[in-house]
Amino acid sequence: MTNQEEFLEKLKSGSQAAFSQLLDDYQQKVFHTCISFVPNKEDAEDVAQEVFLEVYKSVSKFKGDSKLSTWIYKICTNKCLEFIRKKNAKKRFAFMQSITGNQIPIDKTNFFTEFNHPGILLENKEKSETIYFAINTLPKTQRVVFTLAKLDGKSYQEIVDITGKSLSSVESIMFRAKKNLQKKLEDFYKNEQ
Amino acid sequence: MKTTKNKNLGNNNTLNILDSIQEVQVSPFFKNKVLQSLEQQKEVKEPSFSWFSPQLQLASLALIICVNIGAIYYSLSSTETSQEQLSEFETFVQDYNLESTNSISIN
Lengths: 193, 107
Hints:
Number of helices of chain B: 3
Low-confidence stretches of chain A: 103-108
Largest sheet of chain A: none
Largest interface: A-B, 35 and 25 residues
Largest sheet of chain B: none
Mean pLDDT of chain A: 86
Helix content of chain B: 55-70%
Helix content of chain A: over 70%
CATH superfamily of the largest domain in chain A: RNA polymerase sigma factor, region 2, helix turn helix motif
Radius of gyration of chain A: 19 Å
Oligomer: heterodimer
């Protein structure tokens, strides 16, 4: 039995020590992925927490047909997308309420969260916000691949493992995402002038 | 032409900003927070009937069904017996001419 298998068995048996070890190994990586999707430290930590709770709950169902890290990143990506979807739905609901007369203050930007990414320099904040806003308007697959590659710094091979798509497909999605983003940014700056 | 070039340059610069994003460290209490919420979930999830496992539930359901079927069968068979007893009684009454012909009249 390899170390990984042994560790997995311990996790499946509900060992607190194994889970603590998993947290030590992955908390930074998972949080980094979360903050790439959700550029707000508090929200990203909340999502990361949900990821680990889900891992603990579902590790018994993990069959080991992929790497443990890949499985965790898959959960992480899904949780981030779910968080964004829920937040967007809430915003739409708040917007509808503001139309129907129940005044709930909503911010001017249509972004799903308050932009608060501590890793972004102050002078770049405005431009970064624009990019994140543009990324959020991309189709789901493009958004996922672009975020994992460009913001989270994952290799194409890792993205292939996480998304289950072929390498050529990931490359093509990435190409289209970049092109779409450039177009969106062009339009944005045109409208600004 | 120059403006398009400038725009593209602007876009590329904007996208290049993504490379300058610094890594953000997770808060030092993150691990404790996760472990704490895990404990809380465990406490909440501990139901009062945790001993009543699905296997036990199935077994008790089977037992209840068996008892019910038994009760129905017993009640049906006992009805047949009582009818048999009644007919035997009627024959006995007829054999010994014990049938009452008197009718009670108020007059």
